[in-house]
């Protein structure tokens, strides 16, 4: 029977779905309930990681330090994790989070930019935290290239390196081949993680494929509360793992209760594979762009679909939410650039493939 | 906070230079990509005369390029520079932060002015169109970061019209244009740039974000600036001030431009900028590097003009 370590990201990835407006009460309720269900790690941060509160990504209603402290206050056996994106959050943010009780940090970079992470991974080790590397938009890097980046993170002190499917664009076989490629190059003591999204409705299936390929850390979010069409739902993951003979240490019935009774009431909307979130997965666009595109479409009176397709064409990576506003303004006729030739390319599979993979 | 003063000084000084036909001698320390791009720009200057390019690696292609261009080149580093027969009054340091910390006191002791393109942050931080006039007598000047050079002018343009309680910038640069120094010290970028938004731009609080984008073909450098505006701000005046500032920066960074009109809503202005490099040595997508070398040349030229005027007076 294989065993995995689950990180529940409801209070971090779910921050996107709440437009970063989680309250202290909500954090206490969710963290306390997950602790009761035996979820080993609970991640709390702005959706874009420590220091993410900004006009670009959305201002936090409550300072994340208060939220981290609130979670730390209610946890008994679960431990507290945070996320940090170098270029957004800093070492000072990480030190403060550790002082508030965080015991693990995921240092997240785009899947080809691992060499901006060593400063922060090194600090995590120095602070006595568990250091985890998080390679985002993993669908954009071929398996061997992703493995090379994972090695950079491992060399910098990462104890776990994640294949992070930020766009929910991977299929089970592609998730598995990435995990296998990492396993082939990383030292045996470095574990591999998988973070899935539901934009193609495959978060759970991809997670199981990843575990079968050697992943031992898996992310979920309760009720799937997270960016895009949501994350791999923790309670579904726990149930499927039970049926598959994968041990999680989570009380599956309790996880179902947390989902139904604690998280569902605070959802602003049920996670759903709607047209826009499906487009994210289909074209490989960063998951947290969803609500920003919806907002920009309203603000400029333009098509949400066109915005998402255009940011996909321009190959925006995680963190470039500002480009959504720029594209919205340009589609509304406020642009000052020369027209770029074919304006409204239809969403053909060729357009999708262009942003989907560098293997082609 | 007003760049017009410097432009006027520069105009008058230009006449002096043309009348006397004298150019101020300068040298470049560092023969990597930045030093080589800087050399290409300095060779075009009416105000500065590049007298030598100095590195530490005899095999550096940068030294070979300097010799091809008829410029004296040495691989013996700062020791050679300080003992050189050819004169210099200004030294551009395009080495590394660690090397510059070693160079700075020695250059200062020799009475040489230095323009620092490394992240060492020793001298006053300068954006040519915003605050160079305050530091024309500084022995050394630092250029903050590429993102700072691209976005601080916009914050200053807004702040000269209305209060800016908060300014935020996001730079996205092509992965290929971000060298190992930037990557290993990414926190320093965000910290130095945020401080520049406040201390030079005039925002009460600043935040900086940098994103590396590996798209192939490489993306042009893009920057977004969000400024919250003081109550009752005159939007037309803010927009006009931004447009005027962009034109001023474009006098020394020709590829610097707005991609959309400034967007006003929610009590803030959003400004979207793109920087295409001049393609002197670095490829055009590396607008983030071009804006640094272009700013360095502008600073050097203004220092030279200020020095000449003093000499004339």
Overview of the structural elements:
- The complex is a heterodimer of chains A (360) and B (313).
- Chain A is an alpha/beta fold and 360 residues long.
- In chain A, 44% of the residues lie in helices and 14% in strands.
- In chain A, strands 2-3-4-5-6-7-8-9 form an eight-stranded parallel β-barrel, surrounded by eight helices. Chain A has a two-stranded parallel sheet with strand order 1-10.
- In chain A, helix 3 (64-74) links the parallel strand 3 and strand 4.
- Residues 340-360 of chain A have low confidence and may be disordered.
- Chain B has helices spanning 4-20, 33-42, 61-68, 77-83, 97-109, 128-131, 146-159, 180-184, 186-199, 235-250, 287-312; strands at residues 24-29, 48-54, 72-74, 90-93, 113-116, 140-142, 166-174, 205-213, 221-228, 256-258, 263-265, 268-275.
- In chain B, the strands form two sheets. In chain B, strands 3-2-1-4-5-6 form a six-stranded parallel sheet, sandwiched between helices. In chain B, strands 7, 8, 9, 10, 11 and 12 form a six-stranded mixed sheet that branches.
- Mean pLDDT of chain B is 91; it is low at 1-20.
- The chains are: A alpha/beta (360), B alpha/beta (313).
- At the A-B interface, helix 14 of A face strand 7, helix 8, helix 9, strand 8 and strand 9 of B.
- How many domains make up the coordinates of chain B? 2
Percent helix of chain A, as a range, is 40-55%
* Annotated CATH homologous superfamily of the largest domain in chain B: NAD(P)-binding Rossmann-like Domain
The CATH topology of the largest domain in chain B turns out to be: Rossmann fold
CATH architecture of the largest domain in chain A: Alpha-Beta Barrel
What profile does the largest beta sheet of chain B have? Answer: 6 strands, parallel
Terminal CA distance of chain B reads: 26 Å
> What is the total domain count of chain A?
2
The residue-averaged pLDDT of chain A reads 93
Mean pLDDT of chain B: 91
CATH architecture of the largest domain in chain B, please? 3-Layer(aba) Sandwich
């Amino acid at each position: 029977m294989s065993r995995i370590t689950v990180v529940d990201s409801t209070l971090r990835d779910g921050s996107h779905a709440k437009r970063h407006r989680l309250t202290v009460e909500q954090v206490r309720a969710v963290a306390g309930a997950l602790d009761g269900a035996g979820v080993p790690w609970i991640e709390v941060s702005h959706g874009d990681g420590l220091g993410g509160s900004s006009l670009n990504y959305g201002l936090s209603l409550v300072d994340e330090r208060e939220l981290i402290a609130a979670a730390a206050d209610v946890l008994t056996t679960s431990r507290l994790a945070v996320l940090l994106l170098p270029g957004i959050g800093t070492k000072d943010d990480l030190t403060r989070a550790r002082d508030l009780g965080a015991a693990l940090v995921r240092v997240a970079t785009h899947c080809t930019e691992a060499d901006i992470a060593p400063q922060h991974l090194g600090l995590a080790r120095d602070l006595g935290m568990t250091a985890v590397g998080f390679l985002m938009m993993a669908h954009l890097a071929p398996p061997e290239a992703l493995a090379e980046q994972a090695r950079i993170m491992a060399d910098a002190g990462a104890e776990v390196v994640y294949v992070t499917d930020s766009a929910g664009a991977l299929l089970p076989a592609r998730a598995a081949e990435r995990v296998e490629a990492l396993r082939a190059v990383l030292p045996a003591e470095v574990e591999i993680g998988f973070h899935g999204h539901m934009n193609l409705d495959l978060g759970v299936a991809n997670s199981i494929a990843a575990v079968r390929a050697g992943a031992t850390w898996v992310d979920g979010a309760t009720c799937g509360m997270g960016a895009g069409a949501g994350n791999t739902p923790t309670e579904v993951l726990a149930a499927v793992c039970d049926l598959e003979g994968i041990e999680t240490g989570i009380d599956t019935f309790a996880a179902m209760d947390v989902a139904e009774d604690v998280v569902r009431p605070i959802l602003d909307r049920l996670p759903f594979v709607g047209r826009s979130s499906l487009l994210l997965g289909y074209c490989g666009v960063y998951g947290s762009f969803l609500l920003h595109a919806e907002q920009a479409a309203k603000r400029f009176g333009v098509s949400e679909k066109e915005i998402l397709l255009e940011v996909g064409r321009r190959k925006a990576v995680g963190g470039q939410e500002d480009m959504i506003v720029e594209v919205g303004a340009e589609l509304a006729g406020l642009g000052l650039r020369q027209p770029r030739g074919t304006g409204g390319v239809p969403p053909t599979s060729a357009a999708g493939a262009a942003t989907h993979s560098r293997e082609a | 906070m007003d760049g017009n003063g410097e432009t006027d000084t520069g105009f008058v000084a230009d006449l002096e230079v043309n009348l006397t036909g004298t150019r101020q001698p300068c040298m470049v320390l560092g023969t990597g990509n930045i030093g080589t791009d800087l050399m290409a720009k300095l060779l075009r200057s009416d105000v500065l005369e590049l007298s030598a390019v100095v590195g530490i690696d005899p095999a550096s292609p940068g030294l070979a390029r300097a010799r091809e261009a008829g410029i004296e080149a040495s691989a013996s580093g700062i020791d050679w520079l300080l003992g050189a027969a050819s004169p210099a009054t200004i030294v551009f340091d395009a080495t590394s932060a660690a090397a510059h910390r070693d160079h700075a006191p020695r250059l200062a002791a020799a009475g040489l002015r230095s323009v620092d393109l490394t992240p060492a942050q020793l001298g006053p931080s300068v954006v040519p169109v915003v605050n160079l006039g305050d530091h024309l007598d500084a022995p050394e000047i630092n250029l903050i970061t590429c993102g700072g050079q691209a976005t601080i002018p916009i914050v200053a343009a807004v702040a000269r019209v209305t209060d800016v309680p908060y300014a935020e910038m996001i730079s996205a640069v092509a992965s290929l244009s971000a060298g190992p120094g930037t990557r290993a010290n990414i926190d320093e970028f965000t910290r130095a740039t945020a401080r520049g938004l406040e201390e030079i731009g005039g925002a009460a609080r600043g935040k900086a974000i940098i994103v590396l984008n590996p798209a192939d073909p490489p993306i042009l450098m893009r920057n977004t600036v969000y400024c919250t505006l003081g109550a009752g701000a005159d939007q037309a005046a803010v927009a006009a001030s931004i447009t005027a500032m962009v034109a001023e920066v474009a006098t020394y960074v020709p590829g610097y431009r707005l991609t959309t009109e400034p967007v006003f809503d929610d009590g803030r202005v959003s400004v979207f900028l793109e920087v295409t490099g001049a393609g002197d040595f670095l490829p055009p997508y590396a607008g983030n590097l071009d804006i640094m070398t272009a700013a360095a040349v502008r600073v050097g030229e203004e220092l030279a003009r200020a020095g000449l005027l003093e000499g004339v007076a």
